[in-house]
Amino acid sequence: MKNENLYNYILGIADNSLILGQRLGELTGHGPSLETDIACTNISLDLFGQVRSYFQYAAKIAGDERTEDDIAMLRKEREYKNVLLVEQPNTNFAYTLGRQFLFDVYHLAFLKELQKSADLTLSAIANKCIKEVSYHERFSSDWVKRLGDGTEESRAKMQEAINDLWTYTDELFHQTEADKTMVAEGIGVDVTKLKEAYYKNVSDLLLESTLEVPESKYFQKGGKQGIHTEHLGYLLSDLQYMQRTYPNMEW
Amino acid sequence: MTTTEQNIDQILIPILEKVSDPEIPVLSIMDMGVVRSAVIENNIVKVEITPTYSGCPAMDVIGDDIKVALKKAGYESKIDLILHPAWTTDWITPRGRKALEDYGIAAPLNAEADKDVLLNGKRLVKCTNCGSTNTRLVSQFGSTACKAQFQCDDCQEPFDYFKCLK
């Protein structure tokens, strides 16, 4: 492949949306209310749409017979580059929305920078996605506030979710080899530069929601290198079931 | 051609105007603003369409429908999906906005008012049934990616609001 770094870089971005989209899709028909069910699956649809744009581009760069579907459905667990945060399960609604909030704040800041990419396809995708992700971020922030500043029980659940998920936030700002090369070429986003504003924005909203900002400095990592938590395997077996059982099937 | 201008061959306009959004059948794709260019080159019509939302499942159908409509008019065609410049609700024509309202979908407000109704609980969206603005947000997300759910507190009618995308 001519440009393996760019290919890996795109997968690194797209896999976050793919895996989070799949997690949210699990709520189809299982959301706590009809409105939140529809909201979560709408966000899932947006993310899958974005993934298609990225994977179509990646398939073009790969330049072989690989299609967007192959990239999405036929890799092994170790080949997925998503951060650990997005593969965490929908333990309860507070976890689902806490996870969404912690990712959305990052996602929005990341896309703002990706719009400036020297790669015109990536900047066009970012430009498109950012409009959708702004709505996601408003939705998840709103729910963190409602649950945090809600009843005693909703506050306790939201706090527990944030405390548990906090350990996965630092990885968002780790650079991979593909990242470094792409940053040097003016194509990629230097995620290390997003970190300070991220923690400030997240902390401000948590405090506004009467929640505590976790103080733990112990962080988990590995997703970007393909070393995942046990949850990803189960998610992938669901995601890949049709393609593995009926190879080459199409809609 | 500047980035927001359309480049559509006059002769093709009546054909493309007959193609509608499969999810909002009263709305022509031309009034929706998703057709960015359509030109005849060597007897083939090259059409560029842009999605309203990345995940919009209607895009594949719209592409197919354009092909069929052009074929009926005697043209072969090639459809390309482009992402840049990104679609905005500002591209919906006044006729398109009226068609939405008649169909029961409130047309998008400007960006600032949109934020006020979706985040700050302001009552600005006009009910498509009785015209009252005594309406409230039920959910920021609705039956399709582009809409939010509202309800009128005067006539009680539940309705969709087409979210502003800028």
TrEMBL record, chain A:
It comes from the Bacteria. SUPFAM superfamilies: Ferritin-like (SSF47240). InterPro entries: Aromatic_CoA_ox/epox, Ferritin-like, Ferritin-like_SF, PaaA_PaaC, PaaC. This is Phenylacetate-CoA oxygenase subunit PaaC. It comes from Winogradskyella echinorum. The gene is paaC.
Automatic annotation (TrEMBL), chain B:
InterPro entries: Fe-S_Maturation_MIP18 (IPR052339), FSCA_dom_sf (IPR034904), MIP18-like (IPR002744), PaaD-like (IPR011883), Zn_ribbon_PaaD (IPR056572). Pfam families: FeS_assembly_P, Zn_ribbon_PaaD. Residues 114-163 form the PaaD zinc beta ribbon domain. It comes from the Bacteria. Residues 16-72 form the MIP18 family-like domain. PANTHER family: 1,2-PHENYLACETYL-COA EPOXIDASE, SUBUNIT D-RELATED, FE-S PROTEIN MATURATION AUXILIARY FACTOR YITW. This is Phenylacetate-CoA oxygenase subunit PaaJ. The lineage of its organism: Bacteria, Pseudomonadati, Bacteroidota, Flavobacteriia, Flavobacteriales.
